[in-house]
Amino acid sequence: MLKPAARIEQAVTFQAMEVTKQAQTLREQGRDIISLGIGEPDFTAPQIVVDTLNKASAAGLSGYSPALGITPLRICLADYYNKEFGTNISYEQIIITTGASGALSLACLSLLNHGDELLMPDPYYPANFNFILCSGATTKLIPCGPEERFQLSAEKIAANWGANTRGILIASPSNPTGTSVTPEELRKIIDFVKSKDGFVILDEIYLGLNYEGEVKSGLTLDKDILVINSFSKFFNMTGWRLGWIIAPKDFIPHIEKLSSSLNICAPTLAQHAAIACFSDEAMQIYRERKQAFKERRDYLLTELARLNLPVPVKPDGAFYIYVDISHYSDNSMDFCHRLLNEAGIAVTPGVDFGPAWANKMIRISYATAIDRLKEAIARLEKFLPTIK
């Protein structure tokens, strides 16, 4: 009989995917389910990207690419970051990965040794725990509240830095809260971590979906941090499995050494197609879609306040709202289960994102059309009085 490794028992379950499976079961039974659980845009890749994929396929460009990724795409990404986010990087600092998940896995495997400790905020994206676990390291979650925008502060990092701590992993904007670390606080964080000879992994997957003011990458504050990003969210290409790492040039060969064995390369046809994402035609589409996300956020914030579902911190990015349900329930799992089965709305329970806010919070994803959001609010308004 096969016996699972101990890490399987230690790994956390991604409840958002469990909710998605339950929702699909109900759909197969004929129920109309509104999906506000999973973080997947309802938009798909623009037609110019799809056409470019088809041309690449017809041209036979489906073989292995270099482990670093194809050079034209790396150049496009460097230009994109330099133009949009104020950086000054070269394409030689970029390695193309199999999605942000592949990037995070490679980052952890490249930086962490057995017994090392990595600090993360609570709330956090649960899959990160498993990437760290599989590298042989451990995670220390630091509870962070509304006063810190649910983000790590330099003060809390200093108070929790231990003998085995090697670095930190933060996301800005974050999943599940949609909040960003302020540039001032990020500067303090980086300075402290560097004083401890540690490293910073900065998840910027939602950087392109930031709705408030000028948007800058953390690389504008320090060139030595390691940045993760992806084509899944802003570029609406979740199933294409394409992401990237930006790292100091002299560290890239270390990541490449692992990637060439573990992944061989990122999907080659997707790489060729992704070059079209940076065309003027595609970028105009992405800007319009970003505005649509902002309008959805603003609509939901108003309606949730009306329904006595407070949002402790206004999200400035991503497509998530972290909602306080404590007026109605002290059990987020039960609340979400009933909401799905009785009202046909799938959201993610707070237990998915760490223990600090597990029972009183839920995450709502607004990566779905405005008419469906309006229907969800109408159903929610009918549902809430039934659980008082």
List keywords for this structure.
single chain, 388 residues, alpha/beta, Aspartate Aminotransferase, domain 2, 2 domains, 7-stranded mixed β-sheet, 13 helices
What low-confidence regions span 5 or more consecutive residues with pLDDT below 50? none
- Share of helical residues: 40-55%
Structural class: alpha/beta
- Give Rg in angstroms: 21 Å
User: Got a strand count?
Assistant: 12
Taking the sheet with the most strands, its summary is:
7 strands, mixed
Task: State the name of the first-level CATH class of the largest domain.
Answer: Alpha Beta
State the helix count.
Answer: 13
Would you identify the CATH architecture of the largest domain?
A: 3-Layer(aba) Sandwich
Q: What is the topology, as strand order, of the major beta sheet?
A: 2-8-7-6-5-3-4
Number of domains: 2
SSE ordering: HHEHHEHEHEHEHEEEHHHEHEEEH
Q: Choose one word for the global shape.
A: globular
CATH superfamily of the largest domain: Type I PLP-dependent aspartate aminotransferase-like (Major domain)
Say what the CATH topology of the largest domain is. Answer: Aspartate Aminotransferase, domain 2
**Portion in beta strands:** 5-15%
Mean pLDDT across all amino acids: 96
Distance between the termini: 48 Å
Topology:
Elements: H1 6-10, H2 15-28, E1 34-35, H3 47-58, H4 71-84, E2 94-97, H5 99-111, E3 117-122, H6 127-134, E4 138-143, H7 154-160, E5 165-171, H8 183-195, E6 199-203, E7 226-230, E8 243-246, H9 252-262, H10 268-274, H11 280-306, E9 320-324, H12 332-343, E10 345-346, E11 348-349, E12 361-365, H13 370-383
Parallel strand pairs: 1-10, 3-4, 3-5, 5-6, 6-7
Antiparallel strand pairs: 2-8, 7-8, 9-12, 11-12
